[in-house]
TrEMBL record:
It comes from the Bacteria. Residues 19-79 form the HTH tetR-type domain. The keyword DNA repair does not apply. Keywords: DNA-binding, Transcription, Transcription regulation. Residues 42-61 bind DNA. This is HTH tetR-type domain-containing protein.
Length: 223
């Protein structure tokens, strides 16, 4: 699997005591929110996951909503940073190979940064009033940034509507397969997350989206 541009080492160093505590809280919150829907997660759960008394969390994050928003902001920043590199060098490949490499890079990113897609999946189906949902703006940025980057990086002759449909469908399916990987692997009779499952994800997404890519996205290669 091509893991290039999948991860980076942005861990902060030389933190003050307060900064280190805030970092521990966010790390614990990332774990909790990736394993529980927002409405089911609690500050106490974050404290337990981080190994500290939950009242200290309120000092840094007075409300659970604010903590969740900070977690999602971090996720989106990481996503946008690495997403820019997923398109690097793809124009040197055929459409078939380029799509395969692109999917490999997304899977590699997920394996190294599993909290993002898991958190998205934990909450997407539970949001009834999206405008009132904490970090709703970050959810929109997640989808919008992928669409804008795709339009900027990929040569195509398709309409904005066609590209939007393609990118949105691709993103939703990939987020499902990656964010709920343990469940889908079990449905397929696999032992949880394993190389066989990641291969299945790559092959399935490639199979479903290659025809559309050849038809409307990389039209120059399909003619």
């Amino acid at each position: 699997m091509d893991t290039s541009k999948a991860t980076g080492n942005n861990a902060p160093r030389n933190l003050t005591k307060g900064e280190a505590t805030r970092r521990r809280i966010l790390d614990a919150a990332r774990k909790v929110f990736s394993e529980n829907p927002y409405h089911a997660a609690s500050v106490r759960m974050v404290g337990k996951a981080g190994g500290f008394d939950h009242p200290i969390i309120h000092y840094y994050f007075p409300k659970k909503a604010g903590l969740f928003e900070c977690v999602m902001e971090e996720h989106v920043v990481e996503f946008r940073t690495f997403m820019e590199h997923w398109f690097d060098g793809l124009d040197a490949y055929t459409t078939d190979k380029g799509l395969a490499v692109f999917i490999e890079r997304i899977i590699a990113f997920h394996i190294a940064n599993k909290d993002l897609f898991r958190t998205l999946m934990q909450n997407t189906a539970h949001v009834e009033n999206f405008d009132q949902f904490p970090a709703s703006a970050q959810y929109e940025v997640f989808h919008d940034s992928f669409l804008k980057t795709f339009r900027k990086k990929v040569h195509h002759n398709a309409s904005d509507e066609e590209v939007s449909k393609f990118v949105y469908s691709f993103t939703v399916l990939a987020a499902n397969y990656l964010g709920a990987s343990s469940t889908y692997a079990r449905f397929l009779g696999m032992e949880g997350e394993c190389d066989a499952y990641w291969d299945w994800v790559k092959e399935t997404i490639h199979y479903l989206f290659l025809p559309r890519m050849e038809k409307i996205i990389f039209d120059s290669e399909s003619k």
